Amino acid sequence: MTPRLDGLAALEGRGELGYSPPVRYYLETFGCQMNVHDSDRMEEVLHAHGWQNTPTPDEAELVIFNTCSVREKAEQKLRSEVGKLAPLKAARPALVIVVAGCVAQQEGERLLKQIRHLDLVIGPDNIPELPKLVTSQLGGSPKTARTEFDLVETHFLASSPQGGKTPVSAMVTTMKGCDERCSFCVVPYTRGPERYRPVDEIIADIARWVEAGSREVLLLGQTVDSYRDSSLPSPNTGDPDESQFPFLLKRIAKEIPTLARLRYTSPHPRHATPSLARTHAELDVLAHHVHLPVQSGSDRILKRMIRRYTREEFVERARRLLAARPDMTMSTDIIVGFPGETDDDFEATLSLVREVGFTALFGFKYSPRPHTPAKKLADDVPEVVKAERLARLFAVIEEQGATHLQSLVGTSQEVLVEGASKMSRAEMGLRRVQGRTVRNEIVHIEVPREAHVEGQLLNVDVVRANKHSLEGQIERENLARFRRASQSESPRRALPIFAS
Ligand code: 5AD
User: Fold this and answer.
1) What are the residue ranges spanned by the domains of the chain?
2) What is the CATH number of domain 169-407?
3) How many Å lie between the centroid of ligand 1 and the Cα of residue 480?
4) Which pLDDT belongs to residue 496?
5) Per-residue pLDDT at 20 exceeds 60
6) What spacing in Å lies between the alpha carbon of 327 and ligand 1's midpoint?
7) 5-146 belongs to which homologous superfamily?
8) How far apart, in whole angstroms, are the C-alpha atoms of residue 122 and residue 170?
9) Closest CA to 306 of 397, 380, 377
């Protein structure tokens, strides 16, 4: 099927479109890594049809908002951003405005009624149909909402790395949807039930990225560690929470040996089983870091959240993972002010943050979401109390994070360089780049201006800790080699990797 070529070419041929092809689009992304990933796939689908992106809506024929609805604030922001386009649409009625992603899935047709200048609403599973649907809009079709889950014929859009734009760290989807029923969470509604991508497709996607120059892969899934694929061995442990995720990690490590680092997000604590911890100890390619969302440290609240673990169970699972590597760190997500959360419940959360020793966290004030079981509960923690709890939570994690960063000063770290830092010191023949350690700390490093270090693993001495990052220097011995190499080699060629 070539929807664009048939439909659009016909309209172009008859001169019925109010613009000159190719279609120029403006795309704005809100929300999580899954949305960033979906936006990348959307761009690939549009580029495959010869469409081009523009930096602002002003010169675009097509504006797409890829949206998030996990918290009310994100949804409000989207509504206000789309609202701002009303004058542009009034001036150029042929402009096609699209809302994609989770708000689209959640609201469907309703959104077309609520936002008058909106033309198209498209859910996360309908991305491949985007060019066809936009083409119809450009040809004057009525406003449309398309929000069907691909339950019968599930598909995952394969990545197609664009020349010159390969990220050092590439995102690869392993599953979509969520079968948990956490009472606060809209995701099962906006992303549908769990569907798993076949392991061979995942491996092929990773191989494509690595071939194109990526060094790290971040596996994505709403509950990434619930992964299943019939071609992998059965876990056979009798533990109902055991998944085949560890086997997936092992297959990737074995079949893509040149991959420098492998991360995943976000696991559900339920599947953080002993075999996952053992896999962390076994596989050198796995990052020494896990983001394990806990949400609350109070058993009473965990139960009301339908998280399906107790505080004690979480601590046991977290400790097991942390013990897999001597330098392993952990971050988490926490919701404050869930309905019925008392001061004591919140104190339990603070004590859990200390007990586990998280080095970073994302904290959120509870916000009621449509279609969620918790929406029926009174949102009874006052806004000021939520704000105060969040501030106290942040104070605790800031201190733990700072202590952790400080403990790294004076150590040597292997840093995977991701790209340029904002501040450069060109006048001294140096520029600043930034990368990440095997855990996840951001490190800023000064390197000779002519050295091409993006995508390389560098051994770096940590000389200072900032509030949320580290300052590093290339080890002196390597710097000398660097200088010699840059003098003798063409500056365009990547310099050798100095780490083992
Ligand atoms: N209110 C506040 N935070 C929420 N999250 C999910 N749903 C809500 C909600 N209704 C947070 C959780 C989750 C993260 C992605 O967003 O902490 O892990």
Assistant:
1) 5-146, 169-407, 412-488
2) 3.80.30.20
3) 48
4) 35
5) no
6) 28
7) Methylthiotransferase, N-terminal domain (3.40.50.12160)
8) 25
9) 377
